[in-house]
Design brief:
The protein is mainly β. The protein contains no helices and eleven strands. It holds the Pfam family I-set.
Length: about 130
C-alpha cells in the first residue's frame, strides 16, 4: 500500500510518500484442542468429537474413518466454524461405526491431524431380567 502525508508549516507545503507491502502470515495448521483419544458409546447412542485449529491461511478440515473421508448425512453432522472450532456428531451409533476417526486440517503450508477411537458395543440382555 502507499500512504501520502501532507502538511503545512510556515507557509510551505510538505509531503512524504510511504510505501509498504503487507506480508501475510504463513502458518501451518495446529490443533489447539485435540480429540479425546478413546470414546465409548452404546448401540443407538450419540457421540461428538470436537476440535479447535489454527493456521494461516485458515485450514480446510476433513474427517476420516480409517482411510475413507466421511461425508455429512442424516446421522452424521459435520460443523466447521469460522473461529477454527468444529465437530462431528454421530447419531444412532451402530457397532459397525466403531473405529479410528481422524480430523485432518490442511493449508498450503502443511497438515495436522488428530485421531480418536470410537468403541461401541451392543446392549445385551440384562442379567437380572431373566
Amino acid at each position: 500500500f502507499t500512504c501520502l502525508c501532507e502538511w503545512y508549516s510556515e507557509g510551505c507545503r510538505y509531503s512524504k510518500r510511504y510505501s509498504s507491502t503487507l506480508e501475510k502470515k504463513k502458518e501451518k495448521p495446529v490443533f489447539l484442542t485435540q480429540l479425546s483419544p478413546v470414546v465409548s458409546t452404546s448401540e443407538g447412542g450419540e457421540v461428538s468429537f470436537n476440535y479447535k485449529t489454527t493456521g494461516d491461511p485458515h485450514p480446510d478440515v476433513k474427517w476420516f474413518k480409517g482411510a475413507f473421508q466421511i461425508q455429512p448425512s442424516r446421522n452424521c453432522i459435520i460443523i466447521a466454524n469460522p473461529d477454527g472450532s468444529g465437530y462431528i456428531n454421530l447419531k444412532s451409533v451402530k457397532q459397525e461405526d466403531s473405529g479410528l476417526y481422524t480430523c485432518k486440517a490442511t493449508n498450503q503450508f502443511g497438515e495436522a491431524s488428530c485421531s480418536a477411537e470410537l468403541v461401541g458395543w451392543q446392549e445385551g440382555p440384562s442379567e437380572h431380567g431373566l
